[in-house]
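Summary of Year 1 activities. Much of the first year was spent building the evaluation harness for sequence design. The harness presents a backbone, in tokenized form, and records the residue chosen at every position. We chose the following record to illustrate the format because it has been used consistently in internal testing since the harness was completed.
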């Protein structure tokens, strides 16, 4: 790791002069109503190790170090607060025990729990802390505001089969289950690898490493659960009385998550905007990757909330960060968040209409200065440039319109040609060194990416590229950009790839409720098209689930696997019968499936050879695929002297 460059110090000085660091209201709000906490919010994992801890973040104190953007440092301090907080008479939150917040609303007989955090251990610790101070209350309802895992994966830390038998409702927005499966399963492999960069997994916390994630301190780890909803909110607005508490559910599909809803508590004069508002500019497409989000719908739903609910709210509760108190401040805050997404949307579309492409729009688009000075509009999680690209892609897709880009060379081939045209790697490196000294880190990172792709063994190019990424990381206000830059730098400097992240398998809770069709879609994306192109098969796949059976008829043709409800019956080449426990095992991939076939663990009728051929044509994925390079130095064939 290198110290901050003079150009980085200048960038930080500029940021300090443009922002009002004397405004400390957020710190007061983040601490308001504090009741108690666990020492360092330290939570052990059931499987051993640490599920969550603020201990590694003890360094987040005092003035910003040279290696952290001062505004991000401010957020890193705010996100280091943790504990149980009383928000209003009957609303409590535990914050800083997970990436997100859990909210407890005290009803007539029990507690309505909103968003039970990401892991069982996080949620259990939060629930225990709450009950230690508020008595042994029971859960009267569970609410998931949206389909992202940081808001529901910890549900088993709060409720279990007892509560479900008692009829405790689990309430979620329409399409909650489908959307939570769709996002995490089909694109799960690349998403997890890219999430490493977004959240800085593998980076050590420290002034020159990971300091925050923008929405919260970190992701943490632990046991993952899923309890499907028992009650879906289907109408644009639905009014229900839950445990004596009136709640207006406000569906906001296609905003921050595909399935999401706000909650208004008229009797408590409280509003919960789920993750549609946070104390940051959010992402219209996170760095991990997602289907792009609709900035226009997002701003429109915030506008609806501003009109329908804000006048009847004295406190605004959010599912990340701290609450906002007072009618006037809530109105200003919600209007500002609304304006933020509308402005990004409209101005991107305006500049697109001048023929600009995302990099040009990002260079030109400036937020209105009054909005840009609001702390809640700063890009700690999202970033203007990335959001502009997401809006562009949302409307026009990835192609920027220049026909010269229609059939571009893949990155390694292009890199080799660039480097050759520029006079070879050493010539590029010499010029890049001069640019680095001038502080032109963006360009150095770009040009040296070509050298590293062309000559992965060129250690000096790797080091200088890493140095440039590192300075960009130090300069980034966005925590996710910082994490990505610093992990990129680390992977360039390290000879081998880090170990794959934990929690890569599908949770047993998900397997327990996963529709067979979703499993088969998961299987279908593993079919290696070229290997399977001449295979033809008709397979009946039966899922035996206790007393009931679900069957789908699979057709394999032209390397593509289709499935429909029903059976081929006597036309089937082969029939497979599996239990849910078997699905869990074989979802691990080809090797597990082959083993199940070889040991006759799977009940197969007809021609097992047909099934075997299909299994042999399944692909295996390398979860730690290359991002900042395609090959590591030392890999056979491409070694180049440094
Ligand atoms: Zn979240």
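For this record, the design step produced the sequence shown next.
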């Amino acid at each position: 790791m290198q110290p901050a460059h003079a150009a980085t110090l200048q960038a930080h000085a500029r940021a300090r002069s443009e922002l009002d660091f004397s405004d400390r209201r957020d710190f007061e709000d983040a601490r308001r109503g504090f009741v108690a906490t666990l020492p360092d919010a330290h939570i052990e994992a059931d499987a051993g190790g640490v599920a969550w801890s603020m201990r590694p973040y003890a360094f987040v104190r005092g003035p910003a170090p040279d290696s952290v953007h001062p505004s991000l440092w401010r957020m890193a301090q705010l996100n280091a607060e943790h504990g149980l907080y009383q928000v209003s008479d009957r609303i409590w939150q535990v914050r800083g025990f997970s990436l997100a917040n859990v909210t407890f609303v005290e009803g007539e007989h029990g507690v309505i729990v909103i968003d039970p955090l990401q892991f069982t251990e996080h949620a259990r610790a939060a629930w225990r802390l709450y009950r230690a101070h508020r008595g042994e209350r029971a859960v009267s309802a569970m609410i998931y505001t949206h389909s992202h895992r940081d808001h529901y994966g910890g549900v088993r830390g709060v409720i279990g089969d007892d509560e479900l038998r008692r009829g405790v409702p689990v309430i979620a927005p329409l399409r909650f289950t489908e959307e939570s499966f769709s996002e995490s399963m089909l694109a799960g492999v690349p998403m997890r690898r890219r999430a490493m960069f977004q959240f800085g997994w593998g980076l050590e916390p420290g002034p020159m490493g990971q300091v925050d994630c923008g929405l919260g301190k970190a992701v943490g780890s632990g046991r993952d659960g899923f309890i499907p909803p028992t009650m879906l909110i289907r109408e644009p607005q639905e009014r229900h009385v839950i445990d004596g508490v009136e709640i207006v559910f406000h569906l906001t599909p296609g905003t921050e998550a595909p399935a999401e809803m706000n909650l208004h508590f008229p009797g408590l004069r409280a509003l919960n905007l789920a993750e549609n508002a946070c104390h940051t500019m959010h992402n219209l497409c996170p760095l991990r990757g997602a289907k792009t989000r609709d900035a226009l719908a997002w701003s429109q739903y915030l506008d609806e909330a501003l009109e329908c609910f804000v006048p009847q709210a004295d406190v605004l509760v959010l599912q990340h960060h701290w609450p906002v108190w007072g009618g006037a401040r809530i109105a200003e805050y919600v209007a500002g968040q609304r304006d933020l997404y509308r402005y990004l949307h409209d101005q991107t579309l305006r500049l697109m209409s001048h023929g600009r492409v995302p990099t040009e729009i990002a260079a030109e688009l400036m937020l209105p200065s009054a909005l840009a000075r609001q702390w809640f509009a700063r890009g700690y999680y999202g970033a203007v440039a990335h959001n502009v690209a997401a809006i562009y892609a949302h409307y026009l897709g990835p192609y920027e319109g220049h026909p010269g880009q229609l059939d571009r060379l893949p990155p390694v081939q292009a890199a080799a040609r660039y480097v050759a045209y520029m006079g070879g790697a050493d010539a590029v490196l010499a010029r890049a060194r001069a640019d680095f000294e001038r502080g032109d880190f963006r360009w150095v990172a770009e040009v040296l990416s070509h050298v590293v792709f062309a000559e992965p063994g060129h250690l000096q190019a790797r080091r200088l590229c890493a140095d440039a990424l590192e300075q960009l990381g130090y300069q980034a206000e966005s925590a996710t950009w910082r994490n990505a830059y610093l992990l990129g730098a680390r992977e360039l400097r390290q000879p081998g790839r880090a170990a794959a992240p934990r929690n890569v398998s599908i949770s047993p809770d998900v397997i327990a409720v996963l529709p067979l069709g979703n499993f088969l879609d998961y299987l279908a994306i593993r079919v290696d098209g070229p290997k399977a192109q001449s295979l033809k098969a008709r397979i009946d796949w039966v899922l035996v689930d206790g007393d009931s059976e679900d069957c789908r008829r699979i057709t394999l043709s032209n390397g593509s696997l289709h499935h429909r409800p029903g059976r081929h019956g006597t036309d089937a080449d082969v029939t497979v019968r599996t239990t849910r426990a078997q699905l869990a095992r074989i979802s691990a991939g080809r090797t597990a499936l082959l083993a199940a076939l070889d040991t006759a663990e799977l009940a197969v009728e007809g021609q097992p050879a047909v099934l075997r051929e299909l299994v042999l044509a399944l692909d295996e994925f390398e979860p730690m695929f290359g991002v900042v390079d395609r090959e590591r130095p030392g890999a056979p064939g491409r070694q180049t002297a440094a």
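The first helix runs from residue 6 to 18. Quantitative recovery figures across the full test set are reported in Table 2.
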